[in-house]
């Protein structure tokens, strides 16, 4: 798709392709990056967790969300950098065989002091196959403007 900053509108929404979360993926990710027992130890997760079983690391959920968004190619090559997340909220646990869908909404568009880039604020809403919201996040990022074609940064 490859959209420049000026081509976005506040309120615009984009749907990303659904994504299956597997038990193997939960275990592999957690073993490497978030080895808390609620992500890797079935017995512990069933007896000592408020979730009654293994759940995905929230960071895997964020990574899956981001991967869905990047693969949608809306920003394309005009994406410069993610500046910061305003918030990340884990609203429900993600479990094996959950199918996650991500909707992205443009919340704010702000020109910067450089005519070659603008700041976009986007909100991510991630739902599972039951249409339950499992993650909410908001990100500020810099995108190229059409003027960037003519301006050297």
TrEMBL record:
<dbReference type="InterPro" id="IPR029069">
    <property type="entry name" value="HotDog_dom_sf"/>
</dbReference>
<dbReference type="InterPro" id="IPR002539">
    <property type="entry name" value="MaoC-like_dom"/>
</dbReference>
<feature type="domain" description="MaoC-like">
    <location>
        <begin position="10"/>
        <end position="125"/>
    </location>
</feature>
<dbReference type="InterPro" id="IPR052342">
    <property type="entry name" value="MCH/BMMD"/>
</dbReference>
<dbReference type="Pfam" id="PF01575">
    <property type="entry name" value="MaoC_dehydratas"/>
</dbReference>
<protein>
    <submittedName>
        <fullName>Dehydratase</fullName>
    </submittedName>
</protein>
């Amino acid at each position: 798709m490859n959209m420049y900053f000026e081509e976005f509108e506040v309120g615009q929404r984009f749907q990303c392709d659904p994504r299956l979360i597997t038990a193997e993926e939960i275990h592999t990710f957690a073993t490497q990056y978030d080895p808390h027992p609620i992500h890797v130890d079935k017995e512990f997760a069933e007896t000592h967790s408020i979730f009654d079983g293994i759940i995905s690391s929230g960071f895997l959920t964020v990574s899956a969300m981001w991967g869905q968004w990047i693969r949608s190619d809306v920003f394309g090559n005009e994406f410069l950098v993610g500046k910061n997340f305003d918030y990340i909220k884990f609203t429900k646990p993600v479990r094996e065989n959950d199918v996650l869908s991500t909707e992205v909404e443009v919340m704010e568009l702000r020109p910067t002091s450089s005519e070659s880039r603008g700041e976009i604020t986007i909100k991510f809403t991630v739902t599972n196959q039951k249409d339950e919201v499992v993650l909410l996040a908001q990100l500020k990022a810099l995108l190229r403007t059409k003027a960037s074609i003519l301006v050297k940064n």
